[in-house]
Structures
1.
Amino acid sequence: MAAPKVKQDMAPPGGYGPIDYKRNLPRRGLSGYSLFALGIGSLLIGYYTLIKWNRERRRLLIEDLEARIAVMPLLQAESDRRTLRLMRQNLDEEAKIMKDVPGWKVGESLFHTDRWVPPTLDELYYLRPASEMDNEKFGLQYYV
């Protein structure tokens, strides 16, 4: 028996067309120069807003300082009144305690000067409970 005649698969006449083997990537996004320009532009805008905000902060700081300077005499007067009130209470208490001691002068200064010497916290609060002096020294630091 004779082998059946097989038709071999051949290329078409004239051959196959060219094969695309190179990369064909579409352009995506902006070019490098435009990205560089965008970066420089955003930096300039950021520096502009930073400079503007620093000027505003400086203006607000000057305003706060001027307000503090304006209020300072009032705060100093309140502090002086509190100091004088405590000193008067201390002198009254000292007079009550030392009334039986002969030759004791109430309120006699320890300093040999006529100049005003502001009292220390210990001098102001020595006849008061220790908690008051601690509150005056440390204030709200206990809560931190």
2.
Amino acid sequence: MSRLTPAALTMSPFLTTRTPSWFVLCAAVLCVSFVSHGECQSSPTPPTPCSVSNSCETCVPHKKCLWCFSTNNCTEYPVSWLLPPVSQCPLSQARWALCWMSFEALVILLGVLGGVILVSITVCCCCCCCRCHKKRQSRPDRDEELFNRKREEMRQRSEERKQDRKERQDEIRRKYGLIGDKDHPYSKFENE
């Protein structure tokens, strides 16, 4: 650990500044206003048992309770199983979370929603893959087009150089009379 010297204290802006007293006072008032003496000492209310409910409307708001229309009683939802056993209540007569929808319909609805979500994710993935695949395929087409264009330019330059060489060679041949040119002054005289 390093020791703080008086010189170090004067150099550090954080150690030399003092906290305003009004700031400390405001912080204390906020802490006291948020804490209520009555709530701190009270214990949480015990949950109401499911068997006390005598109607579907009072039973299903509690997520741990299950209402059965065939027996007209509210029982605890068996959390050890995903679906309540038929011996407790048939699925078409069981209500959980909503009175107007049977547990059977709720299971079917959740299955359909899960299937729709999976299908939509699969379609999105396929669309993304197809786009990436098309981009990869279009890139070789562009590369091939660029290669063909460069090859054509090189062929044209080669043809131009070839034509220039031929003209220079013809000029040299005319100069030394190797090509019969009547208008050229250096052409050979031929005997007739």
